[in-house]
Write a structure and sequence with these properties.
The complex is a heterodimer.
Chain A lengths: L2 E7 L6 H11 L5 H9 L17 H6 L6 E6 L4 E6 L7 H8 L4 E7 L6 H12 L4 E7 L8 H17 L4 E6 L23 H7 L12 E3 L2 E3 L11 E5 L4 E3 L3 E5 L3 E10 L2 E3 L1 E3 L3 E6 L10 E4 L5 E12 L10 E6 L2 E14 L6 E3 L9 E14 L10 E6 L5 E7 L1
Parallel strand pairs in A: 1-3, 1-4, 4-5, 5-6
Antiparallel strand pairs in A: 2-3, 7-16, 8-9, 9-15, 10-14, 11-12, 11-16, 12-13, 12-15, 17-21, 17-23, 18-19, 18-22, 19-20, 19-21, 22-23
Chain B lengths: L2 H27 L4 H18 L4 E4 L4 H14 L7 E6 L5 H14 L3 E5 H8 L15 H12 L3 E3 L16 E4 L27 E4 L7 H11 L10 E8 L2 E4 L13 E6 L10 E4 L5 H10 L4 H5 L9 H7 L4
The chains are: A alpha+beta, B alpha/beta.
Chain lengths: 411, 328
């Protein structure tokens, strides 16, 4: 059985939590006691509020909004699903990004009455930036527009234009009503003009992009294992998770950024020697030569190495309430490597509405998407995020608050 | 079109198809199944929990989740021993079978186990014991936990919480930063992207690290079955004296109040989760093997906490409130 990780995105009140509640409810993935619990918290008119299934925090239930991403797990005979139920409010975009960074598919909810709005664009930009391979545009609240095909088609055209400018390719449009359960688990007779799959059918059959690169071997060292026992006195193992590629015993390797060469002596998984290992396995490597390697170093094959530089061109999604200021210093954490960087030059900000680049912008705030140059205190082995996301996406950390302030995608 | 061109196109097709089949074979050969993916993710998190902190500890109760966690830890750091202390907050209301198992496993792994008793905290701090039929020390554990974090200056506690357990947990990050009072602020969680975990903290703060966040109850059982991990015998069918309370079976023990109206019966039961005897209910079951337990879990219509935990039913936000106060 394989697994599909997906996120629901859309604006406040587009019905994301209701949609997930409906998916779980209609696919019989809600257990009796959970249903009883939400029935207990239902208000006077007696209807079950399906959003209460995912809005788990007191403040969320009080305000009827989703503040932080909630993870939900369900399965059908065909597939396992991990859902990131993300907030729609612009203030909580960083929580939405948290969910978006680990998915194969995004469901973009569009209110049939409103069409494509700013949050639709913002979330689609995020899908594009994070290279989410599959998109479903779920046109919701079709019941409130009399299940009109015309309204649906208009939104399809509107969104298709947006998708084209963002280079989003795999897009599926589905008209639904999450509240009434139309086209969620079963095809709805009220939407007979729609000939495609209902939402669950599509989720069960869409190709899961494994997004795993087996060609370019990259192994960031997490920690050094030194048992220091009598029989393993000189043992030094390098523990980590392979981000891409395949490693075999005897492979010629280069340790970056220093550039020292050696050969793989053993590959161990769970303390047992194996002949080869591949992404995304967590393993331990030992080398033929006794060299100085520590956390943050990268072991790549000598005939296929990543770029190494002190200067990085990156796109940042700014996620902190404090503004981004050119000349400020931060930590860049890229896999296990932590380096101090300074933000050198802010080239442009992406206008979420027009998708135009605003050069030399001033006053950079929460949720801005900007292109900057980073200068690092020591060299960084890296890839472009679009080519190898596992070694091209990092975070910026504020040195004083320790907060994660930006998602950083290397160009 | 000339035959020459058709030949060329045909040849390209052959090459492309051969390449495709080659890629598919390769992808199938180098593919992890779902449990292997979860295992690798958890080992990576566990290693981050050790690499980024000075003094991590692993919370170990002798229950199935922390046993799974320890099993993963042994794999993560082999051939070295696990590089942290095991910590158990003993409420005094535990199942004796779980405690016996806890001590036996710690010995087998050669790990150092620190046990701190809620009883001692109650005496030392003159805390008020909760009253009632199923008086639970669940809330009080937090005081003991925060004291021992202070005592050993632990900066990270690795725990076996899962997001599918409960809806406040469903919201928590894998690296969950707690302030110096151990409090979780659900409105101020750090963004957490990809597999990059930010463990930087100020003095006095600590991080709760949850390597099996993305596992479901069924995943844990399937993994235990696959790896043949030993469990305390209360997870399998056995005879026990119980009373029935609001449709749940509670073991007869010195820690609950038996009223005259209670009827004590002997049932064949097992436990789905192992917490305190005061707040954990048993399920009727004949399941003696891991296969049988897994089949019952697949067939169940009630969630793990719903079926077996009395303490979560008190309010809608019971878990959120406990976490805000420093609970795990």
């Amino acid at each position: 059985m394989d697994i599909l990780r997906f996120i629901t995105a859309g604006s406040v009140d587009d019905g994301k939590s209701t949609l997930i509640g409906r998916l779980l409810y209609d696919s019989k993935n809600i257990l009796i006691d959970q249903l009883e619990a939400i029935e207990k918290s239902t208000n006077a008119n007696g209807e079950v509020d399906l959003a209460l299934l995912t809005d788990g925090l007191r403040a969320e239930r009080e305000q009827g909004i989703t503040i932080d991403v909630a993870y939900r797990y369900f399965s059908t005979p065909k597939r396992k699903f991990i859902i990131a139920d993300a907030p729609g409010h612009v203030q909580y975009t960083r929580n939405m990004i948290t969910g978006a960074s680990n998915v194969n598919l995004m469901i973009v909810l569009v209110d049939a009455r409103l069409g494509v709005i700013e949050q639709t664009r913002r979330h689609s930009i995020i899908a594009s930036l994070f290279k989410i391979p599959q998109i479903i545009v779920a046109v919701n609240k079709m019941d409130l527009v009399d299940y009109s095909q015309e309204v649906f088609n208009k939104i399809v055209n509107e969104y298709s234009a947006l998708a084209k400018s963002l280079a989003l390719k795999e897009i599926k449009f589905i008209p639904i009503s999450a509240l009434n359960g139309d086209n969620i688990v079963d095809r709805s007779s009220k939407l007979a003009w729609y000939e495609g799959e209902c939402l669950l059918d599509w989720l069960e059959t869409v190709e899961v992009y494994h997004n795993i690169n087996l060609d370019d071997a990259r192994f960031p060292v997490q920690l050094v294992i030194r048992p220091q026992t009598e029989e393993l006195h000189d043992y030094r193992g390098y523990a980590g998770k392979i981000t891409s590629g395949i490693y075999k015993k005897g492979d010629a390797i280069t340790v970056l950024p220093v550039g020292i060469r050696s050969k793989i002596k053993t590959i161990e998984k769970d303390g047992i020697e194996i002949e080869e290992a591949f992404a995304p396995q967590s393993i331990v490597l030992t080398l033929e030569d006794d060299i100085d390697i520590s956390r943050g170093d990268m072991i790549s094959k000598t005939d296929n190495q990543p770029a190494v530089s002190n200067e990085l061109q990156v796109l940042l999604c700014w996620m902190d309430n404090k503004p981004l200021i050119a000349g400020n210093k931060y930590y860049l954490q890229l896999n296990s490597r932590l380096v101090r960087i300074v933000v050198r030059e802010i080239e442009y900000r992406l206008d979420v509405n027009t998708l135009e680049k605003e050069y030399n912008p001033i006053g950079l705030r929460l949720n801005d998407i900007v292109k900057v140059t980073l200068k690092a205190a020591s060299p960084v082995p890296y890839e472009s995020y679009s080519r190898m996301s596992g070694n091209g996406g990092g975070i910026l950390i504020d040195e004083t608050s320790n907060s994660t302030v930006a998602a950083c995608m290397i160009l | 079109m000339s035959t020459y061109l058709i030949d060329i196109i045909g040849l390209i097709d052959v090459v492309v198809n051969a390449y495709r089949t080659d890629r598919e074979d390769m992808t199938n050969k180098y593919k992890l199944n779902y449990l292997e993916q979860l295992e690798s993710e958890s080992i990576h998190i566990m290693r981050e929990g050790v690499a980024q902190f000075e003094r991590p500890a692993l919370l170990f109760s002798g229950g199935k989740d922390s046993i799974t966690l320890m099993h993963l830890a042994v794999k993560a750091f082999a051939p070295a021993k696990v590089p942290f202390l095991l910590l158990h907050i003993d409420t005094g209301h535990n199942f004796p079978e779980a405690l016996e198992f806890r001590d036996g496993m710690a010995r087998e792994w050669g790990a150092t186990l620190i046990v701190r008793k809620v009883e001692d905290t109650i005496q030392k701090k003159s805390l008020t014991e909760p009253k009632g039929k199923f008086a639970s020390r669940n809330w009080l554990q937090t005081y003991t936990l925060l004291d021992v974090i202070e005592e050993f200056k632990f900066d990270a506690c690795i725990g076996g919480a899962r997001r599918d357990e409960e809806k406040a947990r469903a919201k928590e990050r894998i690296f969950s930063v707690r302030d110096e009072f151990g409090q979780w602020d659900p409105k101020l969680q750090r963004p957490e992207l990809w597999n990059t975990y930010n463990g930087r903290i100020h003095k006095g703060e600590n991080v709760r690290v949850f390597p099996i966040s993305n596992w479901t109850e069924l995943d844990v059982w399937n993994y235990i079955r696959k790896e043949n991990i030993p469990l305390p015998r209360i997870y399998f069918s056995h005879e026990r004296e119980v009373i029935e309370h609001e449709g749940q079976f509670i073991a007869v023990s010195p820690f609950i109040r038996i009223d005259q109206t209670d009827v004590i019966t002997t049932k064949r039961v097992r436990y789905r989760t192992v917490g305190d005897m005061t707040c954990t209910a048993a399920v009727e079951s004949e399941a003696n093997s891991l296969d049988e337990v897994v089949n019952e879990i697949i067939a169940t219509k009630i969630s793990e906490r719903g079926e077996t935990r009395i303490d979560d039913k008190v309010t809608e936000a019971a878990m959120e409130d406990r976490k805000k106060n420093g609970y795990f």
